[in-house]
Design brief:
The structure holds 2 protein chains of 2 kinds. Helices cover 36% and strands 18% of the residues of chain A. By secondary structure, chain A is of the alpha/beta class. The N and C termini of chain A lie far apart (61 Å). The relative contact order of chain A is 0.13. Chain B has 15 helices and 15 strands. At the A-B interface, strand 2, helix 2, helix 4 and helix 9 of A face strand 2, helix 4, helix 6 and strand 9 of B.
Amino acid sequence: MLKHPMLKYIREEGPAGKRLPFILCPGCGAGQVLNYTLHAVDEIINQPGVKKEDFVFISGIGCSSRLTSHYLNFDSGWTLHGRALPVATGVLLANPKLKVIVFTGDGDAAAIGGNHFIHAFRRNINITVICVNNGLYGMTGGQVAPTTQPFTITPTTPYGNVEEAFDLCKLATVAGASYVSRWTTAHPFQTIKAIKKGIANKGASFIEILSQCPVHEHKTPVEMINALKGMTVSIDKSMNSNKIPVGEFHFAPRPEWTERYEAIIEKCNERIS
Amino acid sequence: MVEAAVKEKKYPGNFRRPYIKAGRHYLEGSEACVEGALVAGLKVYAGYPITPASEIMEHASRRLPQFGGRFIQMEDEISAACALIGASWAGAKAMTATSSPGFSLMQEAISFSIMTETPLLIVDVQRPGPGQGYITTSQEDVMQARYGHHGEGPIIALAPSSVQDMFELTIEAFNLSEKWRTPVLLMVEETVAHLREQLIVPELDTIELIKRKKPQDLNISPETYLPYGHDIVPPMANFGEGYNINHVGLVHSEDGNVSNYSLKVHRENIDRLHQKIEGNVNEIARIESQFLDDCDHVLICYGSVARTGLEAVKEVREVHGIKIGFIRLVTLWPFPEEKLRSLISKVKNVFVPEMNLGMIKHPITEALRDKCDRVISIPEIGALHSPEKLIDQIIKGSTC
């Protein structure tokens, strides 16, 4: 039987298997994001000197966080709502050699986890943050999120949203991320390339992926993916456009947290010996 | 000496041996706690400053890199507790110290680490509340330690009463957390954390250290490894070892699967977590006692109150001739009900002095329901009981 090439990384069978089907709704963009991420990880694992056990996946709570939950056949932790970044930080404090990937959503990253979001990027600790942004709280019923556009009607904004939406890429950039890019689920190859670059960057990388929630938006997945293509424009053509820019926003490698701390450890040990 | 290290400004690692030396020291409780943790193998400290717990954090920031460990000041107490969870999953012994308001912020992470069976140490240097309360001493979090986190999660909590305890119980706390694969709380009071007195460090190679059981030790292969199975305390693989461990906080079966939910799976999961701690209470919990042979009354206390309590008991016995025994709870949770009952046959009054309005008096009352006539709480807020107050209350209570 012909199998999806990325199923080898999913707990499909075996003693710790039988996890499928995914909990995600049909047409959800999170599955695409997982597919793109695993393609990027697969390409890196196939490079010499990289092992599968070097990768650790951490997530918080929400639809996007279910990507890590218990499906992935990697070392992984499915943690508290908004707290994936501090848990990932702790993993690197104990073992800086690991490659830590965080799956998060817009609510998880920008609302409850907003404080950790800015500080993880300020520290430039070696985490690749993949944020599935569908502009709402999917798991709890489609409520308003910090990324929801003004005037949108949602279950908790029945008369329209009075707040402005966060631009997460701008936020990550000013907080100090050393790699920032935005794509959509309608840009598979660009997304895979961006995730690969994010993982290769020694520092905090942020990749935002605009995604569709057909269930709460009451549209078909095809309509929504086409809309994502239509509402976005490449960053170099975005100057006089009111569309959402996509592409690589920021790439400026700078000293990483554990590297800087390593110098302190070395200096302390010089004194001791 | 550690004192010299504290005074030096830059990289105070210039003593020949990084570990605290065996012998006599004159140390603050906070420093003894960190030194004990380093002996136990502390590798990650993540914290957030708060009075009166900051001294532990500052000392850890100076000492940890000397051992190749990493110290980080996080953005809040929530992230500090969460960083410990990640560090523990990656194989490190990890700790933090906070005070009561910060301890409240850590409760969700404590509950999560009970469910994911993550060994870590949280030190709560208690201050009085509610709200900001004040920065003096208190025992007002002892119920929060057990019941503050959401859900039916058993916890281990220890109560040190001296600088010696701060050293020894920190090591014991790490041992308990590694052995039972669970978070452990060190319920310190400001009075003990800021106390400066003698510490006698034994020869380091005589100190027993316990490491978590790993699947490699039991010849369990990654293909057959069940992260929440094999034993009542499941062996724990670290990240990066090829065991593909999935840590989940949702109700799960032995293999970590959450998609086969049933009430049976749910109840088995909670029952094992509960049995792991409460079912082994006699092995986990410790009680110290004196003068119990002939006593008509007994005083039960914990933490720094045990110091005043013991003095009061001695004086009441010697000067006033009242036959009163002394019990100190070293372990607060799991509550050592059976052990406590076995120590006491029948007494008239049980006195429970606490730096709160009467918290541990409740499990004591329940435990000794048929073994005493009365349980008399001696509350104090914001400061230690004076010996005079205790003596006065004991005399009044035992003569009326």
